[in-house]
Fold each of these.
Amino acid sequence: MNQLGKRILLTGQPHERRHPLENGGVKITTFVPLQFKKRGIRKVVVGPAGVDVPVVVNSSAVITPDTDLPLLKALGRGCYWQHQLDTGAVTNAAEIAKREGIHRTTVNQFLRLALLAPDIAQAALKGTLPRTISLERLLCSAIPLDWGKQREIIAALG
């Protein structure tokens, strides 16, 4: 609702209003439809559909993409463990769990990440996955083996 209390705009589209001031100036109010969503334990800004960069800062400093370090670490461990299973260095996930000192379920969850489509893994590495995708969210969702369905799930989660 604007300051004068005239009406609430529920269109969800970006818009701008100009309010004349008594001294001849103009007060400009801008509405940008942003949402705050959880990404793990943090909240991130998510813009409207079709907007890749919801907030643009005009400065000389370059804003780098957000890389999710816990996701990258889990993805790396999963790929490493899958490689060890493929080469025969270990026989099963229980052996990896015993050697690493972690629960077998954690090993199995990280091994599922090794089956992600290459473009999804690359997007995680570059930090270009949707901002709401986190390690926790990936582990809670059922990730199918079909890469096309994986892309659909990532799109739905984002």
Amino acid sequence: MSKNHHLANNKEIDFNDLQNESFLCMPKHTYIYQLFNELCLKYHFQPKIMMNARIESLIGSLQSNQGISLLMKKSLLVFNHPNLIYKSLKQPVFSNIVLLYKKSHQELINSLIK
């Protein structure tokens, strides 16, 4: 979110406090978008989605305080924008990461995970 957003001074963000916010979301085919929708269902609200775009486009709109976005912290670390502030949710959100590889690379994978 923008440093000027009304929630920017909160130490953490309670998902229940997001019901009336405008959201800038990743494209609909992404996992993070699906996770976001699941969270909104869990907390019983229909999100007001202003746009769906790639993260590079979202950042410009976030900086100008056009809304907020739910993104994975690790994906934001590559971006250094002084006008944005990153906050954690009070309710933890977990995600699974899987490794896919060709069967022909089995020996290499086994040596990496030892």
